[in-house]
Specification:
This protein is α/β, with parallel strands linked by helices. It has 2 domains: 191 residues, Aspartate Aminotransferase, domain 1; 252 residues, Aspartate Aminotransferase, domain 2, CATH 3.40.640.10. 39% of the residues lie in helices and 12% in strands. The protein is globular, with a radius of gyration of 21 Å. A 5-stranded mixed β-sheet has the order 1-7-6-5-4, sandwiched between helices. Bound molecules: ligand F0G. Ligand F0G binds next to helix 4 and helix 5.
């Protein structure tokens, strides 16, 4: 033990516990086969440590729970809406707020308003729901992230950056009038939770303004991104996360937000904007898809919990422990020479399934296979982020073949302990040792939209 080193620990203690259920291997064999080898289709009662997602799986604080008790459940003009509006203005800096039931509710509204048929939307890698809403509104998504992002071993500290040359050449090719906005995510989920630098965001803003194109931020994990900026971008080392967040947002015209991540709640999202005319249209549209503009599909108490979550998420102690936990697992796996995406991301550790199972070709679904195998080994639930998630080209119907074929071990905030993390690492190591015996899968049912959620598979014998 290194006695000179000072460890950090979570800035909270635990007041309420939820029992976990262990299962036998026999039970898990039945459960995964009944789920079509898709971890999304497992029942949570059959899961031991649930790392499917960090979305809506967070533990709320006593202050957030106290906020639930003062939920103002009026249909219109709830007090909690105004609290949330004030906090979004204060921390994100946008003028206007539309609450939505979750992130994709905001994506739906803004895509419908800004996109015309035949448009192009460039972005720093796709996200599943974001791209689908853009496509359903008639746009083609164009990936303009730097090439480094597609290489799981490249150590660039800002793999979420936009490649300005790619963006510029798209503008020259299709014309600025065909690009309603640039879609910038912070952090980039599908690249492994990788951050974008403020220096890059400034350049994106410049190029966009020169061409009269808007910039929309996917702010879902922007506070985690702010933490990476603080520790990796020299200029910001003495700034608070709140200051960095505000500056990030200042280079954009608005954001879509899934509060279920950064903001430490179980449900909720919003659309925030600076342009009054777009806001007015969005305020009109939200009543069709979500609910009145002062609740957007949420209960008053949900808005209160999300508002209080903003205060907690910008705390550096919180973020240090949150990202510290992810790094703890990542570093242990690196020590064991298990292939993961590096640098380690903000919300998850991503196993590189192509390197983990090199004997499988991509059409045998290595990441889907590995996620199922990890469940069989230990009851730990992870998620595929590879060829199944990437889906098909909307024009040709061909499978996208993403360079990254990953299994995401996603960490709910404030939920699991370091001992859970150790069990996780041990289980992955077990699978790694017998990786050569692992066979692939074939897809036997494929839904039309976002197929990864409901697709079914069978083992290749
Ligand atoms: N943008 C990003 C970057 C996301 O990660 C998500 C959701 C959304 C938008 C959509 O938000 O779920 O509230 O509608 N990601 C979850 C995940 C589902 O597991 O990564 P939502």
């Amino acid at each position: 033990m290194d006695l000179k080193k000072r460890s950090w620990a979570e800035p909270f203690k635990i007041k309420m516990v939820e029992p976990l259920r262990m299962t036998s291997r026999e039970e898990r064999v039945i459960a995964i086969s009944e789920s079509g080898y898709n971890t999304f289709l497992l029942k949570s009662k059959d899961v031991y440590i649930d790392l499917l997602t960090d979305s809506g799986t967070n533990a709320m604080s006593q202050d957030q729970w106290a906020g639930m008790m003062i939920g103002d459940e009026s249909y219109a003009g709830s007090e909690n809406f105004y609290n949330l509006e004030k906090n979004v203005q204060k921390f994100y800096g946008y003028k206007y707020l539309i609450p939505t039931h979750q992130g994709r509710g905001a994506e739906n509204i803004i895509s419908k308003i800004l996109i015309k048929n035949g448009d192009y939307v460039p972005g720093n890698m796709y996200f599943t729901t974001t791209r689908l809403h853009q496509e359903l509104s008639g746009a083609t998504f164009v990936d303009v992230i730097i090439d480094d992002a597609h290489d799981s071993q490249n150590l660039n500290p800002f793999k979420g950056n936009v490649d300005l040359k790619k963006l510029d050449s798209l503008i020259n090719k299709v014309g600025a009038e065909k690009i309603p906005y640039i879609s910038v995510a912070a952090t980039v989920n599908m690249a492994g939770g990788q951050p974008i630098a403020i220096s890059n965001l400034r350049e994106v803003r410049k190029l966009a303004s020169k061409n009269k194109i808007k910039v929309l931020l996917d702010a879902t994990r922007a506070i985690e991104n702010a933490y990476f900026i603080k520790i990796r971008e020299e200029e910001f080392k003495n700034k608070s996360l709140a200051e960095i967040l505000k500056e990030m947002c200042s280079y954009t015209d608005g954001c879509t937000m899934s509060g279920k991540k950064d903001l430490l709640v179980n449900i909720g999202g919003f659309l925030a904007l600076n342009d009054f005319e777009i806001f007015e249209e969005a305020r009109n549209m939200v009543v069709i898809y979500e609910g009145l503009h002062t609740y957007g599909g949420l209960a008053g108490r949900d808005m209160e919990a999300m508002s209080r979550g903003i205060d907690e998420a910008v705390s550096e102690d919180h973020m240090k422990a949150r990202i510290g936990q992810v790094e703890y697992v990542g570093n242990k796996l690196i020590e064991l020479e298990i292939p993961i995406v590096q640098p380690i991301g903000g919300h998850a550790v991503f196993l590189d399934a192509k390197k983990f199972l090199p004997h499988l070709n991509q059409l045998q679904f290595p990441a889907q296979t590995l996620a199922a195998e990890l469940y069989l080994e230990s009851g730990i639930r992870a998620m595929e982020r590879g060829i199944v998630s990437a889906g098909r080209n909307k024009d040709t119907g061909e499978n996208f073949l993403p360079k990254l074929e990953l299994v995401r071990l996603t960490f709910p905030r404030r939920v699991y302990t370091q001992a859970h993390c150790d069990v996780l690492v041990e289980s992955i190591y077990e699978v790694y040792q017998r990786r050569n015996e692992v066979k692939g899968l074939k897809m036997v049912y494929e839904p039309k939209y976002l197929r990864f959620f409901q697709a079914r598979f069978e083992p290749i014998l």
